Amino acid sequence: GLxxxxxxxxxxxxxxxxxxxxxxxxxxxxxxxxxxxxLRGLINCSMxxxxxxxxxxxxxxxCQHKCPILLSSAMKWWPLLQSVLCSQWQMQSNDAVxxxxxxxxxxxxxxxxxxxxxxxxxxxxxxxxxxxxSFSSQRQINRLEQGHEMQELGNKSQxxxxxxxxxxxxxxxxxxxxxKEAKVxxxxxxxxxxIIHLMEQKRKGSGESWFILFELEEKQQTPYQVLHKLGSSxxxxxxxxxxxxxxxxxxxxxxxxxxxxxxxxxxxxxxxASLVQLFLDSQEILTEASPSVPQQPKVAQADTLELxxxxxxxxxxxxxxxxxxxxxxxSQLLEACGDLDPEIRAAIVHCFQPDNEDDxxxxxxxx
Length: 367
Fold this sequence. Notes:
The chain is an all-alpha fold. It has helices spanning 2-6, 10-23, 32-46, 52-66, 68-92, 99-113, 126-138, 147-153, 158-177, 182-203, 233-237, 239-246, 252-259, 264-280, 282-289, 296-321, 330-337, 342-351.
């Protein structure tokens, strides 16, 4: 365990981390017993060193990037883990609780009181902060239901809000995969919408937008790269479903602003192509996610097909509204679109025809 988290045995560690996040049906977490086993083992192993607390701190800090699923699981299970781990530490050492363990204890206390203005005053690891708030909400310590609490979240950094949105979008995908009741799905969906509106109001045309979550590629080095290490491969593949579930719920004025944003149209096209592929692969994906629920794929296929219809309507109107997109070339848009929807490809080609200089005064209804 110490070797995997610290980076020794790099290839085998990558494989182990991939297996850990994919064996669990939980959202961005592994089961309690696995989490407790690793952390208790970490404390035991640290006692072989002259300064055990430094070893624990070093490994937990390494996990922030090398094995984040372990820390997100610690966030989820901390109400149960705290007494177990603290008792073990006190039995084996006379030193104070390691700093990184103390951080987890402090986070839990703040989550209970939910003073968002004080919540994680340091944003040195925003995804960890967002994980704690998300899991606290799931435990109904606080459900982010009151408007003033959402406003207080506006005091947090854009990085924190992007990460928080990621966790809620993972919840949204999980609700779909597990066929949870419509009320639960709707609640999570509206939280995603509220966070997006909050982010865009805070951003005011500059800085990172929410759709950066859908621009993450393995080769890019961004603060958000770690997020894709937290969700299972199935949940990550479901992100296009979350994107096109949220998009119709956004204000029309916000949609208009998004269409003027660099890269948004490319992101929307790529995500649409992935959504179509998701529909084609839905039997395989949902069987992998829930092999014991044979009737579920048909339900999910119907939902995905409805989103494809809405997504196509949005893109066709968006392309008709912007005959020659300012930030993209025809080749870029065609590459983003792929070959799965000839109608969208034809609309892109039409955008760049020389005689296509339509009057832009009339704005179509996007949804």
